[in-house]
Predict the 3D structure of the following.
Amino acid sequence: MSKSTFSLSGLSSVAIHAAGHENADHAHLTPIFATSTFTFDTAAQGMERFAGDDKTKIYSRWGNPTFAAAEQTIAALEAFGLEDENGQPLQLKALLHSSGQAAMTTMFMSNLKTGDTVLSHFSLYGGTHELFLKVLAETGINTIIADLRNMNEVETLLQKNPSIKLIHIETPANPTIQCVDLEAITSLAKKYRKIVTVDNTFATPYLQQPFKYGVDFVFHSTTKFLNGHGTAIGGVLLGKDLEFMNTKAWKWHVLLGGNSNPFDAFLLTNGLKTLELRMQRHCSNAEQVANYLAQHKAVAQVNYTGLTSHPDHLTAKKQMKHPGAVMSFELKGGLDAGKQFIDRLQMCVRAISLGTVDTLLSHPASMSHKGVSKEERIKFGITDGLIRLSVGIENIEDILNDFEQALR
Ligand SMILES: *Cc1c(COP(=O)(O)O)cnc(C)c1O
């Protein structure tokens, strides 16, 4: 951790300095510790390391200094400026995983057991939806999918289903950009003593800090904006109950074996340093792209919470610094027009994933949400013609020029 006597004033300073620069070899950056195991000077030292909470110098499935640099940085960003119940600076523990899906598995498996129920929203990342309905279901953990924007419905479900143990929110949600009110859900969850987990991948701590509202766990696919350059798959689980993180969550993490690797962790730590700068550009570009699409005569609908036409415009405004850089839209010509548009793009990139420096476009119905039944997809607002767009940090004129020529 940075050892300044004054508190850092913003996310960039935190992202750049949270991991510290100290190491035995005076390397400026935390090196890629490509090693499976760590040596003990004496048996007693080995025993001490096993007994302590810092497991970064034992065996790399358990932890590694290169992972720790990324973990400390993300924890510092999510906790930035927040206080715990006693008015002290919020302390978070982060566990870096090989993928978002691995971090999510640790999050759910360490909190749930057979017979428990999860309550979640209907607009969700495809992999999360499938994990609930195809994997957790087989272990006897059920999921109720509802509209978590309707607090009366949520309260009724909580009253009727005592087996609900955890409420999982993705806000903004993929790919409809629906937003769930973090404050309202958390206060209901507290009343009924439920755990709240939040997928903060689309927002990043730059736009939204869910721990501010008292949620229990935050999850990120670091593959997206946190890495920012599309160089590595990764995921992180953050919790404020340090005891739980160091025991129960850590047990599932280590025994399921979803550890990161030093090279990916190094790429992530370096990507994080420019998070704030990148997000500022991502967001200002996205705003201009959304306004351009919203007024274009070939466009039927744009899902972007910066537009007052989005049903969750006010929720986003309440809890996010800016609407963000991911949106979806549909052309008046539906699927065929959408395909044609995507094929004509000259600079923007045809690929799934999001949050990279380049502008990426994909087709949720046939790609990220292919594993979700058509009936459910349509119910969730993922129509056949919907195009998902992650706006990059290129020069805005070029993104707009590319769209303009492709829509002509
Ligand atoms: C990508 C993503 C995930 C899954 O993460 P991976 O790194 O691909 O395993 C989960 N949630 C959201 C919102 C995502 O965008």
Notes: The domain at 276-407 is CATH 3.90.1150.10 (Aspartate Aminotransferase, domain 1). The pocket of pyridoxal-5'-phosphate is lined by residues 99-101, 125, 127-128, 170, 174, 199, 201-202, 221, 223-224, 233, 235 (CB under 6 Å). The mean pLDDT is 95.
